[in-house]
Design brief:
The structure is a single chain. It is built from ten helices and four strands; from the N terminus they run βαβαββαααααααα. The chain is an alpha+beta fold. It has two domains: about 1-75, Glutaredoxin (3-Layer(aba) Sandwich), CATH 3.40.30.10; about 85-200, Glutathione S-transferase Yfyf (Class Pi), Chain A, domain 2 (Up-down Bundle), CATH 1.20.1050.10. Strands 2-1-3-4 form a four-stranded mixed β-sheet, covered by helices on one side. The radius of gyration is 17 Å and the shape is globular. The chain binds glutathione. Glutathione binds next to helix 1 and helix 3.
Amino acid sequence: MFRIYGRANSINVRKVLWMCDEVGEAFEREDWGRGYRPTDDDEFRKVSDFGVIPVVDDDGFILRESNTIVRYLATKHGRDDLYPTDLRNRARIEQWMDWAATDAYIGIRPVFLGLQVKMAQFKDDAKAIEGGIREWTQQMSRLDRHLANGTSYVTGNAFTVADIPVGLIANRWFGIEFPKPQLTALEAYYDRLSERPAFMRHGRNGTP
Ligand SMILES: N[C@@H](CCC(=O)N[C@@H](CS)C(=O)NCC(=O)O)C(=O)O
């Protein structure tokens, strides 16, 4: 059995849920993390000592890091269409997954935790929120320019695993209220992803 540890409203758990749905991986899920049982609980630490979700247990094989889990599932299911073995096609996908987890995420954190979660540490920190908005907007404008060059998905004209983290960031961008420029290629991309039932279930489901 494929068991997912983590709350279903976490952006990183949602990558795994979306991917399971895409490849038809049956799973069971336990709620762990903010608002549920804490990840420093001894029971969680027996599974993973890193204190973050998601963690998965695939018949005794424990794995963390959401993007790695997404790629693991693609390979497990032989989905070369979603995660090609061709060196350059694969590298281009990984480039976008790395961007989503690093440069793109720097600005998102203070904005999401301050404006959406209203976490004590961020909610009154206008400077951090403003800085986050500036940084996030710059990154999303870069993504918009890339998409405006005529590609339907981030790596070309086919949906791949790269669109999972990037699509969830787009969902968060459109789901949180703050002043933002109109990014029409990004809007079109968001609507294109919305043709996928798995994205509607685990991404564009009302939770940013
Ligand atoms: N690089 C990790 C980041 C994991 C992470 O930061 N997860 C957040 C949720 S999105 C978390 O564990 N938060 C603590 C909590 O919910 O208690 C991954 O991609 O899986």
